[in-house]
Amino acid sequence: MYDAPNTELHVTQNDIKIAARKVQVYYGDTHAIKDVDVDIEDKTVTAFIGPSGCGKSTFLRCINRMNDTIDICRVEGDIQIDGEDIYDKRVDPVQLRAKVGMVFQKPNPFPKSIYDNIAYGPKIHGLAKNKADLDEIVEKALRRGAIWDEVKDRLHAPGTGLSGGQQQRLCIARAVATEPEVLLMDEPCSALDPIATAQVEELIDELKQNYSVVIVTHSMQQAARVSQKTAFFHLGHLVEYGETGKIFTNPEDTRTESYITGRIG
Amino acid sequence: MPLLWLFLIVLAIAAVGYVLGRSRALQSAGGDSRDLHSLPSYYGTNVAMKAAVPAFLLMLVWLLVQPLYINTVISGAIPDSAISDGANLGLVMSEVRRTAEGLDALVAAGEMTEAFARSARADLGDITQRLQDAGQIVTSEVTQPILRAAQDYRVMNATGSLLMSGAVIVLSLAGLLWGLRESQAAFRARNVVEAGVRALLIAAASIAILTTIGIVLSLVFNTIEFFRLYPASDFFFGLEWAPSFSGRGGSSELGVIPLLWGTFYISIVALLVAVPIGLFAAIYLSEYASRRVRGIAKPMLEVLAGIPTIVYGLFALLTVGPLLLSVFGREGLGWMQAGTAVMTAGIVMGIMLIPFVSSLSDDIINAVPQAMRDGSYGLGATKSETIKQVVLPAALPGIVGAILLAASRAIGETMIVVLGAGAAARLSLNPFEAMTTVTAKIVSQLTGDADFASPEALVAFALGMTLFVITLGLNVFALYIVRKYREQYE
Ligand SMILES: Nc1ncnc2c1ncn2[C@@H]1O[C@H](COP(=O)(O)OP(=O)(O)O)[C@@H](O)[C@H]1O
Ligand SMILES: [Mg+2]
C-alpha cells in the first residue's frame, strides 16, 4: 500500500525493525513532530537526543501508540514494524503495546507485590498456562532485568518498597515479561543516582541482544555509552541520524554540532 | 440608648479615626508617604482598630455581666414570703422579668407614663388590668413584691444601659486619641495591623472550637443527668423502645438497640444503593468521559447534593414508598404493609449519597498518578483491565474512606427517615417493615410534651451522644485511611 519497499530500507547488516515515514504529530494546534523519517534497526540500541521539548518523547510514544491515550493528540504518516503498518485499522493498539514494551522516565511500579508487578502483563495476555509456568516467566523476567538476586527472597513484598534504581529495573523486567520485540525507554535513568544508572545501562547493553531498544536521553554521555545509532531532534524535526560515533565526533549539521558542544539545549 | 445606635456611634468614631490617623501620619512625614514606615492606610487602620476594638469588647462584656448582676441584686431583695408553694425563685424571677417587660411595652406604646410605671403607690389591680389589656402575659394578679421587684429591675436596667453607653463611648474616644498620638512617621503601623488581623483570625478559630466543645459538654451533662434517672445498662442493652406517654411515668422502656438496628439497617440499604452507583459514576467520569461530558455531568451530579433532605423525604413519602408498595405490597408480593419502610428510606437515602460518594471517589481516582495508568497501558492492558487491576486497588483505601464518610452521613440523616421509614422502633430483619432510627427518635422525644427533666426527654441527649460517638469514630477512621493513602504517592 505504500511505495517504499522494505528492501530499499536496508542500510546496514542489521534488519530494519521500525520504519517511519513522514510522521507528523499534532497536540491540538501544536505541531510537535514534523516530517520525521527514520529506520530503526533490530538488535541495536538507538538513542534519541535533543533539547527539552523537541519531541523525543512524543515520537517515542508514536511507536507503541501510547499517544492514542491522549485525547488531543493526532498522528499522521506511516510507521511500520516488521513491514506492518501499526496505524492500520486492523491493528489493535492494545495488542501492539504488548509487542512494543515501554519503560518510563519515573519508575512506576504498581502498588502490588514484586511478583504481581511482573506477572501483570503475562496474566493479561494469557502467556502462562499454570502457576508453575507463571513462576518461571517471572523468574526469567527478573533475571533479564538483572534484579533477580536482589528480590528473590521477597517476591511478595510491595514493589513500591524498592529503591529507585531497583524500581526502574523492576519496570524493565515488567516490560520484558510480555516478550516484546521492541523496548522503548523514555529517559529511564533521569530519576536515578549514578550507580543505579550504571546498572541500568549495563542492562540495556545486554537487552540489545534480543530486542531493538530505543532510548530517549538528555545525557549525551549516556547516548555515547549505550547506543550504536543516534538521532538528534530539534524543534520537532529529525535533524540528523547516523552511527553514534559519527554523530558525536563528526556531525554534519551545524545544529547537531551546537547541541553536542553545549551551545543549544 | 438602643444598642444599634451605640454600635453605629462607635463605628463612626472609628471611621473618623481612620481619616484623622491617616492624614496625621502623612502630615508628620511632611506629606511624602515614602518617608512613612508603613503605607498611610495602615496608620488609619491602626487608629480605627484602637477606637473600635476595646469599645466593642467592653460592650460585649457589659452586656453579658449586667443581666447577671441585676438578677442577683433583685432576687436577693425578694422576700421569701413572695415565693408561694410549689414555685421557686426562678419562677418568681421570670415573672418579675415579664412584668418589667410588660411595663416597658406599655411605656413604649404611650399608654402609661414613665412616672406611673415607676410609681410605688400604683394600684395593683389597675396595673394588672392594663397589662392584660395591652396583651402582655401576666399571672392572675401582680403582687406587691413582684411589682416592686419589676420596678427596680426596670430602673437598674435603664441606669445600666446609660452607664454602658457612656463608658463605651469614652473608651472609644480614648482609643482614638491613643491611636492618633501614635500616628507618627516612625511608628510601625503595618506590624500593629498585622497583629490585629492575626488576633481577629485567632478569635474566629477559637469561637469555632469553643462552640464545638460547648455543644459536646452540654450533651455530656445532659447524658449524665439521664443516666442518673435511668440505668445505663438498660439503655445500652435494652431490646425494647417504648417510652411512656404520660411524661413522668417510670414505666418507659428506653433501650437503644432497636434504634441502632434501624439506623444501621437503613444505612446499609443506603450504602448498597449509593456505593456501586456512585463508584461507577466516578469511574466513568474520571476515566472514560470526554472533557465535555465531564464538564456537564459532574455539576449535574453535584446538584443532587444541593437538594435539601426534606425534599428527598417528600420523594420517599410520595413517590418511592407508593412505588415499592405497588410491587411488594398486598397487590404484589405481599411483603409490605405500608409505604414507609426500611427499603423506602434506604433507597432514597442512597440516592442522596450518590453524589457524595461519586465526587469523593472521583477526586481519589484522579489522584492516582497518570504514571500508573501509563505503565499499565504500556504493557498492553485495556482500559477496564487497567482500572480494575491498577487504578482501583491503588485508590481503594481512599474509596473506603469515602464510603465511611458516606456511612456517617447516612447514620446522621433524619428527615428522610422521619418521612420514609415510619416511627415504629422494631427489631426485625424484614426490610419492607417500618423501622426508625436514632435521629428520628431524638426529634420525637424532644418535640413531644414530656417534661424536660424527665428521662423520656433526657434520653434524647443520650441518643445524641451515642450517635455522636459513632459518627465521630467513623469519621476519624475514614480520615485516617484517606490520609494514609495520600502519603503513599508523595
Ligand atoms: N500531552 C500533551 N499535550 C499537549 N502538548 C504536549 C503534550 N505532550 C507534549 N506536548 C508538547 O509537544 C512538544 C514535544 O514534547 P515532548 O515530546 O515531551 O518533548 P521532549 O520529550 O523532547 O522533551 C512540546 O512542545 C510539548 O509542549
Ligand atoms: Mg520527554
From TrEMBL, chain A:
Compartments, as annotated in UniProt: Cell inner membrane
Keyword annotations of the record: ATP-binding, Cell membrane, Membrane, Nucleotide-binding, Phosphate transport, Translocase, Transport
Biological process, per Gene Ontology: phosphate ion transmembrane transport
Pfam family, one: ABC_tran
Signal sequence, start to end: none
Gene3D superfamilies, per database record: P-loop containing nucleotide triphosphate hydrolases
GO molecular function term, any single one: ATP binding
Domain of life of the source: Bacteria
Protein name: Phosphate ABC transporter ATP-binding protein
Organism of provenance: Pseudoponticoccus marisrubri
UniProtKB/TrEMBL annotation, chain B:
PROSITE patterns on file: ABC_TM1
GO molecular function: phosphate transmembrane transporter activity
Cell inner membrane keyword on record: yes
One BP term from GO: phosphate ion transport
Occurrences of domain ABC transmembrane type-1 (ranges): 260-478
Keyword match Lipid biosynthesis: no
Annotated compartments: Cell inner membrane; Cell membrane
InterPro entries per the UniProt record, alphabetical: MetI-like, MetI-like_sf, Phosphate_PstC, PstC_N
One GO term describing the cellular component: plasma membrane
Keywords: Cell inner membrane, Cell membrane, Membrane, Phosphate transport, Transmembrane, Transmembrane helix, Transport
Membrane spanning stretches: 45-65, 162-180, 200-220, 264-285, 305-328, 334-357, 390-411, 457-482
Highest taxon above the source species: Bacteria
Pfam families documented for this protein: BPD_transp_1 (PF00528), DUF3708 (PF12501)
Membrane-protein topology: Multi-pass membrane protein
Matching SUPFAM superfamilies: MetI-like
Family: Belongs to the binding-protein-dependent transport system permease family. CysTW subfamily.
Its biological purpose: Part of the binding-protein-dependent transport system for phosphate; probably responsible for the translocation of the substrate across the membrane.
Protein name: Phosphate transport system permease protein
Organism field: Pseudoponticoccus marisrubri
